[in-house]
């Protein structure tokens, strides 16, 4: 269900699509509420994802997993995540991986995309993908890594979401933006102060295309992934 100011509305071709954010704005937003209360936008459509971020693993994991599964079963979320492995997190990597795989199972069971968080853990996440034998699509959110990692993720079927790091022309993702296939590219703002329009503008310039063409590309991928 999509709501704008409390009312349903159809998605429009010109909508900005923000595949992962904690601060919804204009356009179509996939909102992860893991950072607390979400301030609903005055304009814009909002869907929700739900997951257990590796930085926020606590002693309520089982209860939180039940909430994710219930939300998926009741159709209250359109994706699971963000979930993943982060070597900066306090929880041991083995604990993070087990929790990630359980969330991947929920995504697979209910036919939902999985929004993936990975920090210095790409090999582990690819191994988990093979282990899960997931028929669902995994989205590597906030990608900012070298070309070899990009190609490895693409070979395994990942979608790549570019966000705040793309705004830095010295970043790794900025360098590889032209190499992301059009049918695997998504755009996000995450928890940054950038607007979704600013990120689209930067990515479009780097790829040498019009913003309107990028909007069409992302919309096609969004429709393929989320089937809303």
UniProtKB/TrEMBL annotation:
<dbReference type="GO" id="GO:0046872">
    <property type="term" value="F:metal ion binding"/>
</dbReference>
<feature type="binding site">
    <location>
        <position position="117"/>
    </location>
    <ligand>
        <name>a divalent metal cation 2</name>
    </ligand>
</feature>
<dbReference type="GO" id="GO:0005829">
    <property type="term" value="C:cytosol"/>
</dbReference>
<protein>
    <submittedName>
        <fullName>Uncharacterized protein</fullName>
    </submittedName>
</protein>
<dbReference type="GO" id="GO:0016788">
    <property type="term" value="F:hydrolase activity, acting on ester bonds"/>
</dbReference>
<keyword id="KW-0479">Metal-binding</keyword>
<dbReference type="Pfam" id="PF01026">
    <property type="entry name" value="TatD_DNase"/>
</dbReference>
<dbReference type="InterPro" id="IPR001130">
    <property type="entry name" value="TatD-like"/>
</dbReference>
<feature type="binding site">
    <location>
        <position position="141"/>
    </location>
    <ligand>
        <name>a divalent metal cation 2</name>
    </ligand>
</feature>
<feature type="binding site">
    <location>
        <position position="190"/>
    </location>
    <ligand>
        <name>a divalent metal cation 1</name>
    </ligand>
</feature>
<dbReference type="InterPro" id="IPR032466">
    <property type="entry name" value="Metal_Hydrolase"/>
</dbReference>
<feature type="binding site">
    <location>
        <position position="82"/>
    </location>
    <ligand>
        <name>a divalent metal cation 1</name>
    </ligand>
</feature>
């Amino acid at each position: 269900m999509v709501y704008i100011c409390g009312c349903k509305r159809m998605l429009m071709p010109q909508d900005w699509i923000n595949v992962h954010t904690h601060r919804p704005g204009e356009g179509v937003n996939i909102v992860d509420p893991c950072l607390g209360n979400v301030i609903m936008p005055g304009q814009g459509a909002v869907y929700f994802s739900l997951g257990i971020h590796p930085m926020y693993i606590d002693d309520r994991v089982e209860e939180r997993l039940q909430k994710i599964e219930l939300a998926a079963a009741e159709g209250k979320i359109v994706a699971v995540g963000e979930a993943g492995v982060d070597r900066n997190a306090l929880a041991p990597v083995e604990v993070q991986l087990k929790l990630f795989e359980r969330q991947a199972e929920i995504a697979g069971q209910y036919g939902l995309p999985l929004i993936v968080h990975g920090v210095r853990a790409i090999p582990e996440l690819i191994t988990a993908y093979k282990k899960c034998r997931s028929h669902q699509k995994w989205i590597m959110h906030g990608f900012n890594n070298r070309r070899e990692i990009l190609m490895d993720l693409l070979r395994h079927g990942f979608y790549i979401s570019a966000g705040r790091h793309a705004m830095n022309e010295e970043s790794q993702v900025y360098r590889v933006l032209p190499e992301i296939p059009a049918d695997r590219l998504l755009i996000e703002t995450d928890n940054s102060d950038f607007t979704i329009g600013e990120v689209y503008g930067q990515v479009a310039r780097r790829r040498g295309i019009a913003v309107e063409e990028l909007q069409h590309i992302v919309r096609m991928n969004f429709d393929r992934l989320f089937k809303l």
